[in-house]
């Protein structure tokens, strides 16, 4: 987020006027809660994301942005500004949803065949890198388990 | 901005100037000339795209919030150089342009918009409908947007909102 590409600079830097709210050097914490909730703090943006399935080919994606009741007006403005980074028009989130739709189109292109995407193998073991879809496979393995199929 | 009170008189030429501004605004985006889009705004402009639900409940969150022309320029640079998205065309249809108030230096305007999105290998589809609540101001002889509030009706945005409303 600091800099996507060499040579790109904000003309109005207020978008990234980030203040530290928590001890430590980390600025991002994202927690997925089974089966369909994601809670995240990124810089000064506090959000939840929920996936609401409509069927096998579509889901609604609900973003909710939070502030604290005792935030100063300045902090509220900062959070509202940083909301430009996330959501359907977000500087850092548009790529994700666009790529996800392309993946879905690719995977559902042959309705009479089957398709699977195996990045990082076919199992759900832990790895020391994140170039793997083990987390998605693990989610579906558990989902099938609790749903009984 | 009381809808019932008649606005102070603008000349016919001034009214046509307002209509021309909206036509040029839509044409600029429809043609894909995004680099020309921020020039429709004052340097200290406010530009927001907000769900009708939030607007009617007076909630401040907007999916796009810019507090200067420079922030609009940043968004254009992001669209061109940073964001990844499926290429598409936009067609803005702007209708019902109505002058709702005339101040010493400002003109308040309401209008409706409808955006039709076309992916090159699909039929055109309705992307979003909503309304503008704008304040215009004259700077260096030219009408510019000092405030533009775009309020869209459906809470659901079809995947991504990339180009300007």
What are the key terms here?
heterodimer, A: 149 residues, alpha+beta, four-stranded antiparallel β-sheet, 26% helix, elongated, B: 165 residues, globular
**Rg result of chain B:** 16 Å
What's the helix count of chain B? 3
Distance between the termini of chain A: 41 Å
- Output mean pLDDT of chain B: 94
Largest interface: A-B, 26 and 29 residues
Number of H- or I-type helical stretches of chain A = 3
The low-confidence runs of chain A, each spanning 5 or more residues with pLDDT under 50, are: none
Kindly state the percentage of residues in helix of chain B: 10-25%
Main sheet properties of chain A: 4 strands, antiparallel
Question: Which residues of chain B form runs of ≥5 with pLDDT under 50?
Answer: none
Work out the strand percent of chain B: 35-45%
Helix content of chain A: 25-40%
| Beta-strand percent range of chain A | 15-25%
Kindly state the number of beta strands of chain B.
6
Distance between the termini of chain B: 23 Å
Q: Which strands sit side by side, in order, in the main sheet of chain B? A: 2-1-6-5-4-3
Strand order of the largest sheet of chain A: 1-2-3-4
State the assembly state of the protein chains. Answer: heterodimer
Please render the helix and strand layout as text.
The complex is a heterodimer of chains A (149) and B (165).
Chain A: E1 28-33, E2 37-42, E3 45-55, E4 58-66, H1 73-82, H2 94-107, H3 134-147
Antiparallel strand pairs in A: 1-2, 2-3, 3-4
Chain B: H1 12-30, E1 41-51, H2 52-56, E2 64-66, H3 69-81, E3 88-102, E4 106-119, E5 125-139, E6 142-152
Parallel strand pairs in B: 1-6
Antiparallel strand pairs in B: 1-2, 3-4, 4-5, 5-6
């Amino acid at each position: 987020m600091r800099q996507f590409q060499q040579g790109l600079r904000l003309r109005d830097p207020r978008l990234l006027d980030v203040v530290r709210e928590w001890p430590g050097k980390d600025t991002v914490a994202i927690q997925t809660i089974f089966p369909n909730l994601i809670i995240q703090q990124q810089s000064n943006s506090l959000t939840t994301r929920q996936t609401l399935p409509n069927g096998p080919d579509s889901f609604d994606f609900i973003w909710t942005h939070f502030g604290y009741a005792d935030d100063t007006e300045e902090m509220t403005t900062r959070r509202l500004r940083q909301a430009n980074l996330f959501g359907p028009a977000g500087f850092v989130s548009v790529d994700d949803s666009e790529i996800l739709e392309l993946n879905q189109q690719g995977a559902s292109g042959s309705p009479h065949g089957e398709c699977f995407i195996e990045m990082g193998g076919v199992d759900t073991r832990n790895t020391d890198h994140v170039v793997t879809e083990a987390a998605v496979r693990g989610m579906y393995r558990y989902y099938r388990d609790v749903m009984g199929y | 901005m009381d809808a019932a009170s008649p606005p102070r008189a603008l000349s016919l030429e001034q009214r046509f100037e307002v209509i021309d501004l909206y036509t040029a605004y839509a044409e600029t985006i429809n043609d894909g000339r995004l680099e020309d889009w921020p020039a429709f705004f004052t340097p200290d402009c406010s530009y927001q795209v907000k769900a009708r639900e939030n607007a009617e409940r007076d909630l401040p969150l907007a999916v796009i919030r810019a507090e200067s022309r420079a922030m609009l320029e940043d968004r254009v640079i992001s669209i061109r150089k940073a964001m990844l998205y499926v290429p598409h065309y936009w067609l803005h249809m702007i209708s019902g342009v109505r002058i709702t108030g005339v101040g010493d230096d400002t003109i308040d305007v309401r209008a409706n918009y409808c955006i039709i999105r076309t992916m090159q290998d699909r039929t055109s589809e309705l992307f979003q409908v909503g309304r503008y609540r704008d304040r215009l101001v004259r700077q260096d002889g030219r009408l510019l947007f000092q405030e533009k509030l775009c309020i869209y009706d459906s809470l659901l945005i079809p995947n991504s909102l990339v180009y300007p409303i």
